[in-house]
Specification:
about 300 residues, alpha/beta, Rossmann fold, two-stranded parallel ribbon, about 40% helix, binds NADP nicotinamide-adenine-dinucleotide phosphate
Length: about 300
């Protein structure tokens, strides 16, 4: 078992998941550097290498040691907008992770990268295994798959790719937060009831990431809370927990057309990951209750 000593978290300053990862690392006693695109140019390998050199010099002076791990929590996550901005989506979701992978390989750093359930087409009818065939339905899903493939092809020894899904958590707009804001203003909301997935809390995913690093996990794994839900079930539970006076009505996907096509059932199987975790993740309902209870301070 070995936790890294000093971790550079790209997207750790402003990203929804990145911020949670910085907090989880700090709680585990790991020095974490929360970086944003203002600190380092994500698309320039030389700039990233210079930034790491600076951090290592600073770490040596302060007795913190050198950076021995990068967590990449940067991504283009606007699923619908990506349909009209494929170049931007591929730049962030495929080229950028490949560049970080090259730097990690050169410097022999461990690397954690996140991917998505949207690499699948949702037609399996059962939770997806990490080894199942991929078939993304959207530019976002295809660009994230390209990022996975680019990283795996580099054969970075300490590479861990975690596919996650349907994130909610403090610090940034997300599906649950949007629903609660709308439910506070309206008497009725219509939410898609025929798309199913694995809702996941960023703080739980961040804790899982730290545990998996400690377990020296590598390769491609799934990392989500336990339980599955439709968007309608997730929204209904959030509104119920918040005690808002709003009816959440189920509608089919056809009743809420979106620019990007989403998988009908992209729940992720966790069996491989559970074998490596000391603390299995809790049910999404429990994580959601904690998140909703923290409103409006989030
Ligand atoms: N959100 C979800 O529901 C979901 C579901 C499945 C998988 N994931 C994956 O989980 C990881 C973390 O997602 P997240 O929701 O925490 O990400 P996020 O908060 O939306 O974005 C993370 C960071 O990426 C950078 N970024 C985002 N859009 C950008 C753009 N258009 N141009 C330049 N930089 C941009 C920003 O970095 P700076 O602040 O440093 O500029 C941002 O803070 C990603 O790999 C994502 O694909 C997310």
């Amino acid at each position: 078992m070995s936790l890294p000593k000093r971790v550079l978290v790209l997207g750790g300053a402003n990203g929804m998941l990145g911020r949670a990862v910085v907090t989880a690392l700090a709680s585990a006693g790991v020095a974490a550097v929360a970086a944003s695109s203002e600190d380092v140019d994500y698309f320039d390998a030389d700039d990233l290498a210079d930034y790491l050199d600076e951090l290592d010099e600073d770490g040596a002076e302060k007795g913190l040691g050198a950076v021995d791990c990068i967590v990449n929590a940067v991504a283009y996550t606007q699923v619908d907008k990506a349909e009209d901005q494929p170049e931007e989506a591929y730049k962030l979701n495929a080229s950028m992770p490949a560049l970080v992978g090259v730097v990690a390989l050169e410097r022999q750093l461990r690397l954690v990268h996140y991917s998505t359930d949207f690499v699948f087409d949702g037609k399996k009818g059962a939770p997806y295994l990490p080894t199942d065939d991929t078939n993304p339905l959207s530019v976002y899903g295809a660009s994230k798959l390209a990022g996975e493939q680019a990283l795996l092809a580099l054969e970075v020894p300490g590479l861990l790719i975690l596919r996650t899904a349907w994130l909610f958590g403090p610090g940034k707009m997300n599906f649950v937060r949007r629903i609660l804001e709308l439910a506070a203003e309206r008497k009725e909301l219509k939410v898609v009831a025929d798309q199913f997935g694995s809702p996941t809390c960023t703080t739980d995913l961040a804790r899982m990431t730290v545990e998996l690093l400690d377990a020296n996990a590598t390769g491609l794994l799934h990392a989500v809370n336990s339980g599955e839900a439709s968007w309608h079930q997730l929204a209904s539970e959030a509104v119920r927990l918040a005690e808002l006076d709003c009816r959440v009505l189920p509608i089919p996907t056809s009743g809420y057309p979106t620019r990007a096509v989403r998988p009908a059932n992209s729940a992720l199987d966790m069996a491989d990951t559970l074998r490596l975790l000391r603390h299995p993740p809790r049910h999404w309902r429990e994580a959601l209750a904690e998140y909703v209870a923290s409103f409006p301070t989030i």
